[in-house]
Amino acid sequence: MLSTIQRRACRSFLEVSRSFSTTPRWSYQHDPLLSDAQRLLAASQPPPPPSTPVPTPRVTPTTATTTPATTPEFFEVPPERDPVLHFLTTSVMDHGRYARAQKVISEMLLHIHTLTRSPPVPIVHEAIRKASPAVRVKSTKVGARSIVRPVALSERQRTSHGIRWILEASKNKPGIKLQLRLAKEMISVIKGDSAALKKKEQVHKAAMVARGALSGR
């Protein structure tokens, strides 16, 4: 009995729900009064302006342009301890006063730069190189005779002879201070009118004569 009532109630509920789903819902579009009012309102309004298409921005592929890096200018700075300047400083040094000798060489470089308007360190290197001899003559006693023969010099010996001859020739230059006279002598060596160059030429001539005498025996 109860099951029969439940089946009938379920069937009636399904029929009612099906009827609601198939019945069209009310809409203002189906109302003739509302549809006529909407048509009149649309006719009274001006037509909308035509929509212009918005241009899309054109993306062009950009190539990465690299700007050349500016190379910074580097000035030629002498090393902290130049071997030639150190050798020259020790040659000028008197009674172990190395600080005073350094001051003399520094002021000499300043005088060279003032007189030539050029970097002074290359001038000093070139002057010492020009004044440095390649050989020296050595006298050897054989029995009752003395034989003079040429002897090649090492780089340190050549530099030592050149610096010593430049210091000796600087004594004849005008000036009270050693640094000024030494600067003028360095410039004279570069120009080719120094007494140190004459000394070098004499030594080379003596070496050539001694070599010729040995080869003639």
From TrEMBL:
Task: Kindly state which keywords UniProt assigns to this record, in alphabetical order.
Answer: Ribonucleoprotein, Ribosomal protein
Instruction: Write down the Gene3D superfamilies for this protein, in alphabetical order.
Output: Ribosomal protein S7 domain
User: Which residue ranges does the record assign to the Small ribosomal subunit protein uS7 domain?
Assistant: 77-211
Task: Tell me the segments the record calls region Disordered.
Answer: 42-76
Q: Which CDD domains match?
A: uS7_Mitochondria_Fungi (cd14868)
Question: One of this protein's Pfam families, by short name?
Answer: Ribosomal_S7
Any one GO BP annotation for this protein: translation
| Family from the record | Belongs to the universal ribosomal protein uS7 family.
Q: Would you name any one GO CC term?
A: ribosome
Return the Low complexity bias intervals: 59-76
- Where are the compositionally biased (Pro residues) regions? 45-58
Name of the protein this chain belongs to: Ribosomal protein S7
